[in-house]
Write a structure and sequence with these properties.
The complex is a heterodimer of chains A (189) and B (394). With 189 residues, chain A is mainly α. Chain A has helices at residues 10-19, 24-46, 50-69, 77-96, 119-128, 133-144, 149-155, 160-188, and one strand at 2-4. Helix content of chain A is 69%, strand content 2%. The longest helix of chain A has 29 residues, at 160-188. The radius of gyration of chain A is 19 Å and the shape is elongated. Chain B has helices at residues 3-15, 20-32, 34-51, 61-70, 86-97, 99-119, 165-170, 172-175, 185-189, 197-209; strands at 80-82, 142-144, 219-221, 238-249, 266-273, 278-288, 291-297, 300-306, 309-320, 328-338, 342-356, 359-374, 377-393. Chain B is of the alpha+beta class. Classes of the chains: A mainly alpha (189), B alpha+beta (394).
C-alpha cells in the first residue's frame, strides 16, 4: 500500500527530506506542488523581467532543497521559501543597481502582458516597479500573498510595526503614482 | 486630524481591523471630506484589482522538471511513497492520531453497554423451581421437563438451558423430531399461561405417546420455528458503527487542505435494525473533497480548485444478506446527505464479519459523488473510498 504525501503536513515532509535520500525528492515534489504558485506569484510581482522571474523562482527551490537536506530546521515552510525568494530578488536588484525611475510612462512599456483583461490590475502591477524595494515587497507579501504582518516581519527581518508601516506607505505611494489614472477612472464611473 | 491619520483609518478598514466606533468615525469623516473620499475610492480600487489576481499566476510546466534536473533528481510520477506497514500500520496511525476521540468513544460504548446490561430488567429463569413450571428466556425457548431419562435424550440436548444462543440454534435439527418439546411462539408472550394444567397435560400426552414415561431434571434447549425471523443474534435493534476511510479522488487533486481536521476520514453511524436484513440510520463523517469549478469575476473567467474540510451528515440505508458462513455477510448501502458545499450521494458494497453476536467488523468499497453550485452553475466531482470499521449492536 502506498502512502499519499498530500496528507502529510509540512513538518513531516521536511523530516522525510532530511532523513531519507530515497524519498526526499518525493517529499520535495509535494512541497513544490504546495507552494510553487505562491513563490512564483511573489517573484512575478517583485521582478519585471520574465526570464529573471523564472531564474529566481527556480533558484529559490534549489536553495530550499539544498538547505533542508543539509539539515536546516524550518518551522514555516512558505515563510522560508519567500525569504529565499526575497533575498534572491534583492540580489537581482543589487546586481542591476537601479530601480526604474518614475517618468509617467514607465508602466506602459513593461513587457508583461498577462493582465490585459484587467486594466486596473495591470496598471497596479506595473506601478509596483516604481516603489522602493522594501515597500514593494511588503505590499506584495501583504496584498498578493495574503501574509499577516507578523509573517511579513519574519520574512523581511523587521518588526511588526515596521512591516505595517511599510505596507501603509506602499499603499500611499501607489495611490500617488496612480493618481492620474484613478481620477480618470473615477470620472468614468 | 491630518491626512495620514485619515489614510490609516482607510487602510485599517480595508484590513478589517477597525472596531465599530472607529468605523463610525471613518464614515463620518468620509461624508464631509472630499479628499478622504477620493483616497478611499482609490484604495478600494487597488484592493479590488489585487484581489482579482487570485488564480492568475500560472506555472510553466517545464519549471518543475528544470528545478529537479538542476538538483540531479527525477520528478516522481506521483507524490506517494511505499508503505512498509500496510493496512494495519495505517489503522494504527489513524487510531494513534485519534486516540483521544477513540478513548472517548470506547468509554461511551462501555458506559452505554453497562447501562443496558445492568439497569434494564431481565427475565429470571430461576424464578420458579416448581418442576411443572415452564421457564422461558425471551429469545430462546427452554423447557424444564422433569423425569426424562438422560439416556433417552441425545447428547446434543444435554446442554444447560442457559447456553449461548448460537448453541441453541445448532440443536434445531436434532430437536425437530421431538414435537412435544417445541414451545409455541405465543408462550414467549405470556409465559405464566404455560404453567396451566392443560399445557402440561398436552405435554404429558406427547411424552407418553413417544414412550418417555420417566422424568428427570435435564433441561434441553428447544427450537421454535416461529421465532426464526426474530433478532436472535443480538438482543437489541440499535447499532453504532465507527469507520475509517481511505479516499481516492476520481480527478487527481492539484491542491490539498492546509490543515486537516482532527476527525478527518472518520465517520460514525447510528443504525436502527428494521428487520434481519434492513438497517436505516444516520451518518456523520469528516472528510475532504477535491472540487473544481469555473466562474466569472470582474468579467474574467476563472477556474477554481480547492479541497476543503467538510462535515457531512447523511441518511443511510443498508441491506445485509444472511450469514454466508463463518459469520460473513455481504451488504450494500446507499446514502444521501449534505455538507457545506452541496449534496452528496454514496453507494457502498462490502462485507461484515461477526466476531461475536454484538461486535462486527466491516470493510466496503464506496463511490462518492458531490453536487455543488457556483454562480448558478452546477458542478460535480467524485471519489472512491475504502471503508473499514467496527459495529457494535446494543
Amino acid at each position: 500500500m502506498k502512502r499519499n504525501l498530500a496528507k502529510y503536513d509540512d513538518a513531516n515532509l521536511l523530516q522525510i527530506m532530511r532523513d531519507s535520500n530515497e524519498q526526499s525528492n518525493i517529499a520535495f515534489s509535494e512541497l513544490y506542488d504546495r507552494y510553487a504558485v505562491k513563490v512564483r506569484s511573489f517573484c512575478n510581482y517583485m521582478i519585471s523581467s520574465k526570464d529573471q522571474v523564472e531564474d529566481t523562482f527556480q533558484e529559490t527551490f534549489i536553495f530550499f532543497f539544498r538547505n533542508i537536506t543539509a539539515g536546516k530546521d524550518v518551522t514555516n515552510t512558505l515563510g522560508y521559501l519567500l525569504s529565499i525568494a526575497r533575498n534572491l530578488c534583492l540580489k537581482y536588484y543589487r546586481d542591476k543597481k537601479s530601480n526604474v525611475p518614475y517618468d509617467g510612462e514607465a508602466y506602459f512599456i513593461d513587457e508583461r502582458n498577462e493582465y490585459e483583461q484587467n486594466e486596473m490590475l495591470d496598471i497596479v502591477v506595473r506601478s509596483l516597479d516604481l516603489l522602493e524595494d522594501i515597500y514593494r515587497e511588503a505590499f506584495v507579501l501583504r496584498e498578493f500573498e495574503g501574509l499577516h504582518y507578523d509573517e511579513i516581519a519574519k520574512v523581511t527581518n523587521t518588526t511588526v510595526t515596521n512591516a505595517k508601516s511599510r505596507v501603509f506607505r506602499a499603499h500611499k505611494q501607489l495611490i500617488k503614482v496612480l493618481d492620474p489614472y484613478l481620477k480618470d477612472l473615477s470620472k468614468k464611473y | 486630524m491630518n491626512s495620514t491619520d485619515n489614510f490609516q483609518l482607510i487602510v485599517d478598514f480595508a484590513d478589517g481591523s477597525l472596531n465599530p466606533a472607529q468605523e463610525d468615525k471613518l464614515f463620518l469623516r468620509l461624508s464631509s471630506d472630499e479628499v478622504m473620499k477620493e483616497q478611499f475610492k482609490s484604495h478600494m480600487a487597488i484592493k479590488t484589482a489585487v484581489q482579482s489576481s487570485n488564480g492568475l499566476v500560472t506555472l510553466p510546466s517545464a519549471s518543475k522538471s528544470d528545478v529537479f534536473g538542476k538538483l540531479g533528481l527525477v520528478v516522481p510520477a506521483t507524490n506517494t511513497i511505499p508503505g512498509n506497514i500496510g493496512w494495519f500500520g495505517s489503522m494504527s496511525r489513524l487510531m494513534i492520531q485519534n486516540r483521544r476521540y477513540l478513548a472517548t468513544a470506547l468509554v461511551s460504548i462501555a458506559l452505554t453497554a453497562s447501562f443496558f446490561m445492568f439497569m434494564m430488567p431481565k427475565a429470571d429463569l430461576a424464578v420458579n423451581q416448581n418442576p411443572n413450571f415452564l421457564a422461558m428466556k425471551p429469545a430462546t425457548p427452554v423447557l424444564n421437563v422433569p423425569n426424562i431419562s438422560a439416556n433417552e435424550v441425545p447428547n446434543s440436548h444435554k446442554s444447560n438451558a442457559n447456553n449461548v444462543i448460537r448453541k441453541s440454534r445448532a440443536a434445531v435439527v436434532n430437536m425437530s423430531e421431538m414435537p412435544a418439546m417445541i414451545v409455541p411462539a405465543e408462550a414467549k408472550l405470556n409465559a405464566p399461561l404455560l404453567a396451566e394444567s392443560s399445557v402440561i397435560t398436552n405435554l404429558n400426552h406427547e411424552l407418553n405417546r413417544t414412550g418417555i414415561n420417566e422424568f428427570s431434571t435435564i433441561s434441553a434447549p428447544k427450537y421454535n420455528p416461529s421465532l426464526e425471523g426474530l433478532n436472535i443474534n443480538s438482543d437489541g435493534n440499535f447499532a453504532f458503527e465507527f469507520r475509517g476511510t481511505n479516499y481516492w479522488n476520481a480527478q487527481s487533486p492539484t491542491i490539498g487542505p492546509k490543515v486537516l481536521s482532527n476527525f478527518n476520514n472518520t465517520g460514525l453511524s447510528a443504525f436502527y435494525k428494521l428487520n434481519s436484513n434492513f438497517y436505516a440510520g444516520l451518518d456523520i463523517r469528516q472528510e475532504t473533497f477535491f472540487l473544481t469549478y469555473s466562474g466569472q469575476e470582474n468579467g474574467q473567467d476563472f477556474n477554481y480548485q480547492q479541497q476543503p474540510n467538510f462535515t457531512t451528515a447523511s441518511a443511510i440505508f443498508r441491506y445485509k444478506t444472511g450469514d454466508l458462513g463463518f459469520g460473513i455477510s455481504p451488504f450494500a448501502q446507499i446514502s444521501a446527505g449534505l455538507n457545506q458545499a452541496g449534496f452528496l450521494g454514496r453507494a457502498m458494497t462490502g462485507v461484515q464479519y461477526e466476531i461475536i453476536p454484538s461486535f462486527s467488523v466491516m470493510m466496503g468499497i464506496e463511490y462518492n459523488s458531490i453536487l455543488y453550485k457556483h454562480q448558478n452553475n452546477y458542478f460535480n466531482n467524485s471519489k472512491f473510498g475504502l471503508n473499514y470499521g467496527l459495529m457494535y449492536m446494543f
